[in-house]
Amino acid sequence: MDLSQYTLFITANLPYILAVLTILIFIALIIFISVSIKMSRLNKRYRKMMTGMENANIESLLLGHIEEVRQAVIKVNNLDEKCRRLDVVTTTAIQNLGIVRFNAFEDTGSDLSFALALLDQNKNGVVLSSIYGRNESRVYAKPILDGQSTYHLTAEEKAALNKSLEKNHK
Question: Domains of the chain: which residue ranges?
């Protein structure tokens, strides 16, 4: 094909070629407007994010925040360690008690004698008994392991122990 044939083809189809070029220019204009709107929104978000930050860039801001997060993680780990230690301590601390007051002798008034059971979370502890009399008072201590004593317990001591064990289950 020589140049005259191209010229003849273009001249014959000039309205169609102009219509296609007009449509392509219109599509390019729509894409340009869309990109321009998106860039404007992005620019507004950037300015809003950087408000109050003089001579600061995003990299330095992110590095500062990363360091703050690292410090927070260290603090959380320290608190977690302290909580674990406190859990160990609290299992052996007195958590449950049961007390029964009673009158040990008929000739004394009031319920001045008592049995007191003090147990930790593992049902270990002690039962303290105080027998009050007019002329003297006596205090007894009996160890408790896993909710049981190797010593004979009086009815009042058993009642105090049962009260403490009931609190241990709640």
Answer: 3-50+59-87, 96-167
